[in-house]
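Appendix B, record 7
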Amino acid sequence: MIKPNFIIIPKNCNAKELAQRFELKSKELNFTNLAISFNKKKRIKGILTLGDLRRILLKFGRYADVNKFLNISPIIVSEKNLNNKINSYLDERKIKKKLKKIDQLIILDKNKEITSIKNIEEIENNSFFKEITVIGMGHVGLPLTVHLLKNFSHLKGIEIDKQKIKNIKKNKLDFYEKNLDKALQKNIKNKNLQLSNNLNNVKSQIYIICLGSEIKKNSLVSNKNLIQISKSIGKKIVKNDLVILRGTVQVGTSRKVVIKLLEKYSKLKCGVDFYFSFLPERIIEGNALYELENVPQIVSGFTKKCREMALEFCSKAFKSIIELESLEEGEIIKLASNSYRDLSFAFSNEISRISSIYGLSGSNLIEKANFGYPRNLIAKPSMGVGGYCLPKDPFLFSKLLGTKKNGYLLAKNSRLINDNSINEVFNVIKNFQKYKSNKKNLNIMIFGITFKGLPETIDLRNSPSIELAKKLIKKNHKVKFYDVMYRELKKTKFKYSKYLINNKNFMNSSDVIIVANYHPDYPKMIQLNLKFNSSKNNKLIFDCWNLLDQQTIQNLNWIYKNI
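Structure tokens (predicted):
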């Protein structure tokens, strides 16, 4: 660390002598334009700035004793308070009023020795010293908050649901992220995170909105929550504040909804008085903390200055950054990424559907098509595409805000194909029951109740497994789920919890086993525990991810089928 360069004022020192010392020091590097007087205990007695000295010379002459004119109330801050809570610290002690006259902070270590002298502009323009509020403590906001606390000492989290705040404090999360709970509790215990349900109670210089556009019934887009929070933030922001939108929105929302509301309710001009950035999340659910650390963040701004302010913050928060040209570029990249993934899965599932018409396996066909052919990167087919983002974002992309021009035209097709993939699996079971002399209602075991297997999650939103189970239960089949996240799932209350079991041996009393999720534990478990089918009735294993060895299954007198 470079030590601060300042003048030590001798016991008997006149204005002329001090002026000579200033002149000599001015040629040295890192000079702070500050002269400090110390007492016998080497504690700061008072300070003089170059401006103070000029006034002494003009009014009292060259031989005036400068020690009589010391500022005996310099602004001194402990090194432990030099963090992104410094603004609150200065406000609470009414120090900011003094900064209008004195623009430097003297920083002391635990031994009361000077470690640095900082200009107030350096504090005001550096994100390390700005207070941050993250709004929305859900799948996006909570992992982001924990990630930011690696680099910033204090954060504020806003969540309107009071019960959710209580649950977070008790480590009862309604979703799963690897290593999130331990890091979260550590920060709560150390009082690094302040949680509140009232935005009016907080004051920050950076606000991060982790809410986005939603899809309601009939594929209608709703920005209701985003509008409400934009109004609330607009009433709070002051000059030089930075507002960051982290949620996924339809193209045009940042410019035409959020910024307009912020300007209306703040009476400030974006890009001049305050700054706005669109910084969409890019995490994969279940491995968010790793991806926040390693995946490049895409940063856009309303104006060049907005982008610069956001980049300054992001350079301290993330390892890798991609600078964008406009807000719309960021909105499109986010929606395009998820729409592409949904479409690629739809393409695979459509190949699988066509293959099945000719009695072929789409999984096997795609595997052969990809092998040794670098131009083919066809994804594996599946039972369907669930979760929150992929079923939603193609529809958001199809509806551009503020224009009659068409958005993403492939949304309906990709969604239709992926949703129909569940029916393909249902029809296989239906035909198995009809043509294999299994007239009774079937015992069916489904491996994987969550919407995906890897990375692990307890998210049941739009789960293909549950959608299939609904159809099977309606036909009076007995359905049970086995999931690697059994313990975490049991901690939450959900509608189909009564169908969730922790007994892997149930598979041998089942008529049908469905491997619905891609997880390495499931094929290991089946191949280690599956017994020979000695009954007269046929039994079926439907391997949706092509994870099992077909010959092994058939040797145990089970029918094997994949997508």
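Remarks on this record: The mean pLDDT is 94. The chain has four domains: 1-74, 77-124, 129-325, 414-562.
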